[in-house]
Amino acid sequence: MTAIATEHDVLLENLQRYFGFDAFKGDQRTIIQSLLEGKDTFVIMPTGGGKSLCYQLPALMLPGTAIVISPLIALMKNQVDSIRGYSDNDEVAHFLNSSLTKAQMKKVKQDISDGKTKLLYVAPETLTKEENIEFFQACDISFVAVDEAHCISEWGHDFRPEYRRIRLMLDAVAREVPIMALTATATPKVQQDILKNLDMLEERTFVSSFNRDNLFYEIRPKVKKDQTIRQIIQVIKEEFRNESGIIYVQNRKTAEDLAQVLAVNDIKAVPYHAGLDPKTRSKAQDDFLMENIDVICATIAFGMGIDKPDVRFVIHYDMPKSIENYYQETGRAGRDGLNGKCIAFYNYNDILRLEKFLRDKPVAEREMGAQLMQEVVAYAETADCRRRFLLHYFGEEFQVDRCGKMCDNCRSPKERIEVQQEMINVVGAVLELNENYLMKTVVDFIMGRETKEMKDFGFTEMEFYASGEGKDENFWNSVIRNAMINNLIYKEVEEFGLLKVSPEGRNYLKNPFPVSITVNHNFDDADYEFDDEKGGTAVLDETLMNMLKDMRKSVAKKHNLPPYVVFQDPSLEEMATQYPISMEDMTKIQGVSLGKAQKFAQPFLDMIAKYVEANDIERPTDITIKSVANKSKTKVHIITSIDRKIPLEDIVRSTDLTMPELLEELDMIVQSGTKIRLDYYLDKKIDEYVRETVIDYFKEAETDDIDVAFKELKDDEITWEEIQLMRIKFLSDYAN
C-alpha cells in the first residue's frame, strides 16, 4: 500500500474536497487515521453516527479499489448513488451482485481494471465465485470493509452463515490489506465473535456511545387490531403529517393490509417486503427517498437498507425478535440529529407466537432465539429507563438522569409494587409441579383453579396450590415473566416451553430478596387500556365503558332483549374510545349499521354527549379513520343469493365454501350490522319446535356463545348447525 500524508489538515482538506464537510464527527478522524496507517480497525458506532464515511473517505484517498462487503443489495445501490452524488463521474463507485446482467458485470470489472473505481460494494456470496476470486487477485485492493459485521456472529440479530467465510475468501484475494469491520449493534459477546472470526488480533477498536439522545422510546400495549391501527393513524396525522416514517411488521400480509388502510386515510404509504418483485420494491424505495410517499410498511424479516436522514418516526406494529433488531430499526429515525419518535406495540402473545417458530430449529438456535426474545420481553416490561436498559445491553454504563425524559418510563414513571412473596410462590410452585408444566398450568395452580388436571393429579393437596388467590391471571403472568427476567425460572424451549427453575431460583427460595413490578402491566391482555398524555386519543375510557354497559342493560330491558343484542362489547369499547355524539359518528363504530344505530343508539349518544361536555374531553373523532372497503365478491354473492332465496347448499357449491365456512361468513355479515332474511330456508330445514326453542333460549341467554347454547340445548336433540343458523336469524331480526 502506497504511503500517504495523513496530517490532520490533509484529512480535513480531503473531507472538504470529497464531501463538503467542515469537521469530522466523533471518532471519525482517528478511525480513518488508523486505516490509512494500515491497521485492522474495528468500528462500533450507532446508526446515524457516520460509519460509512469512515471507509468512504480513505477509499477515495488511497490508490486502488476498496471492497465493501455488505449483506443488503438495496443498500448497495443506495450507497453507490450517494457516493456518485459527490463525484463528477459514475465510475467512482460500483456494486457487484446478482441483480446485474453479464454486460453490466463486465463494465464494472473493466472500470476497476482501468483504475476508475475507488469503492466496490459486494455481497459475500459474490466473493465465493471462482471467477470473481481470480479477478480480485489481479486487482489493486486498497483495503476491505466488512459492513454490518454483526452478521458474522450467531449471537447477532441478523446472522448470515456466508459471513463466517469472509476471512477464508479474503485470504485468497487480499491477505495483506487491512480490514475494517463496522457495525451499529454489537453486544460484548458479538464483538468477540467478530474479532475472532475475521482474525483481527492486533486491531484498533473504536466504540462510540450507543446513546441516541434525540430518540424518544415508548412501548404501548398492543390492543385489538383496529384500535392499534387507529392509534398509528392518529400518531401520524397529529404528530407527523407529511413526514417520513417506517412501520415494521412481522409478515407480508400485515404490511400489505396496513399500507392499504393508511392509504385510504390519506397517508401516502406502500408495503415493502421480500415477496414483492424487484421492480416494485425498488420503486417503493425510490419513492420513499424522493418523498413521493411518506410511510414504508416493512417486514421485520426483510432488511430495508434505506439510508434516509429525515425519518421522523419508527413504529413497531410487531415486536422484533431481539434487542439488536429493535435498536438497529429504531436507529433509522433521526439520523439528521433532529428528534425522532420510536413507538413499539407490545403484547406477550406475539412473543409466544414467535416462540412456536423456534420449535423446529436446531437446539442451539432454539436456545439462542429464546434468550434473545426474553431480552425483548424484559425491555418491553421494564419500568426503568428504557435508554439505560438499551445501553446496558450493549455494555455501556448510563446514568438515568441523563435520559432527559426521552423515554416513556422517565416521562411518566409507573407505580411499582413489591412481589417478594409472590416470587417465592412462583418458584416454589414450579418446583412442586416437578418443572413439568407450561405457564398456563402454573398460573391455574397458583390461583387455585379447580380444573380437571388439578383434581386428577392431586395438585389441590400441595403446599403452593391456591397460594395466589385474590390476584388475577394477568398479575400472575406478569410475576412469572419478571421471574424469568430475574433469571429465577426459564422456559425450556426444547420441551415446548415447560417452566424450569434455575440455580439462582433455587437459591432465591433460601435467600429471597425484594423484587418489584409495575402495576397493571397487562401486556398479554388484548383489551389492555393505557393512559395517553393527550387524553382521549385511542384510549379506552373505563368510566364511560361502565356507564355504557349500564345503559345497554337499561335499553335491553326496555326492548325485552339480552344486552348483547343491543351492542356487543367491541362496539361499546370503541364508543368509549371514540366518543360518538351524532348518528353519523355512531355508524362508524364497528358492528353498528345505520339500522342498528337508529334502533338503539339515541340514548347512548345523549349520554356520551353529556359526558364529553361535563369532563371537557377532546374527542379524537376529529380525525375520521376510514376502513378499507370490503370488496369481497363472496360476501356480495352470498347476500344477493339469499335475497333471491337460493338454498344454502347451492350457495355452498357456487362459492366453493364448505357449509361451516358459509355459516361463518353469514355470522360475520350479521355481526357487521347487515340484515339477512333466511326464513325461506329455515322454515323448510328446521322443525318449528326447534326454531322456537332456540329463539326463546337466545332471548333469555346472557351470552350468544354457541358452545354454551349447545350444552344447554343438547338434551332437546338440537344440532350445532341448527343453533348456529337460528342464532344468525335471531341476531339479524333483533339486533339489526
Distance between the termini: 81 Å
Beta-strand content: 5-15%
User: Low-confidence spans: pLDDT under 50, at least 5 residues?
Assistant: 1-7, 525-538
Tally of individual helices: 35
The gyration radius over C-alpha positions equals 31 Å
| Biggest β-sheet description | 7 strands, parallel
Q: Total strand count, please?
A: 17
Structural class estimated from helices and strands: alpha/beta
What form results from the Cα inertia axes?
globular
User: What's the average pLDDT?
Assistant: 82
Number of domains: 4
CATH architecture tag of the largest domain: 3-Layer(aba) Sandwich
Classify the helix fraction into a percent range.
40-55%
Instruction: Trace the largest sheet across and list its strands.
Output: 3-4-2-5-6-1-7
Name its key features.
49% helix; Rossmann fold; seven-stranded parallel sheet; 736 residues; disordered N terminus; 35 helices; alpha/beta; six-stranded parallel sheet; globular; 17 strands; DNA polymerase, domain 1; 4 domains
Provide a concise account of the structure shown.
The chain has 736 residues and is of the alpha/beta class. The protein is built from 35 helices and 17 strands. The strands form four sheets. Strands 3-4-2-5-6-1-7 form a seven-stranded parallel β-sheet, with helices on both faces. A six-stranded parallel β-sheet has the order 8-13-12-9-11-10, sandwiched between helices. Strands 14-17 form a two-stranded antiparallel sheet.
